[in-house]
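Exercise 7.
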Amino acid sequence: MNDKVNTTLQWLRDAEQKFRELAYGDATSPRPKIGLALAGGFARGIAHIGVLRVFRDAGIAIDYVAGTSVGALIGTGFCAGTSLELMEEAGKHTTFADFGRWTPSWLGLATNQRMEKYMARLTSATMFEELKIPLAISTTDINAGMTIYYSSGPIAPALRASCAYPGLFVPIQYDGRTLVDGFLTSPIPVEGALLLGADLVVAVFLESGGIENPRTAVDIISRSFNIIQGHSEISWRQQADVVIEPDVTSFGWDDFTKTPELVAAGEAAAKKAVPEILALLRRRKKDSAV
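Solution. The predicted structure, written as tokens, is:
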């Protein structure tokens, strides 16, 4: 009787092992490290939460995250271990006043100093070293015209800099540099994920809708930079292994009240990409085992 039970248990173990090998490749070979590159987009960035939820439910582990602007904010919460449900709830109640305060000056229309308090709602972590998953935040040195990544030290100044949309928010003086939004030189921070050590990078791109008749200074600034971004896509697309593009073109930059719809858009796009990611993981594992 015991022999029959042992035989059955062994058969089940073998079947489970074969299933894992079919799904993920040889379990004895190292799993490729996955890096996630999250784009900016103000309220549209809430779609990142939907992408992360699909990955969680599909069992796709994220080893590194690189974020620009709102992608850096979502990335900070995720890397700190903040629940996606908490971040979604926070998104529903977010307004411009939560992270910005109008203070017109020669350098910008507002300050984003309140971003530090907003971040504190999501996590008590203040240093990169406290995060559970390595994070790189993309910023732009406005004087040097180059991307500066931060992955150590205090999070707040790097995050504020990454969210300092040129013309709208006053630049951040930090680390001996004048820093603005990372999207200016690194709209999708694929390079940041690679620098952290990712073997495979999944990029999440949030295309904004066209503004036919700009009505405010913010609309003018936004449309101008969207045009610039359109000419810089080739570089980061060539570096990314998989690109996820949630359909968020119908949402405005401040559509925080549409959080459920934005999350759903992220989920829909990520679900389509899961088979491609799993197949790529299997190929990479097979290649590394040879």
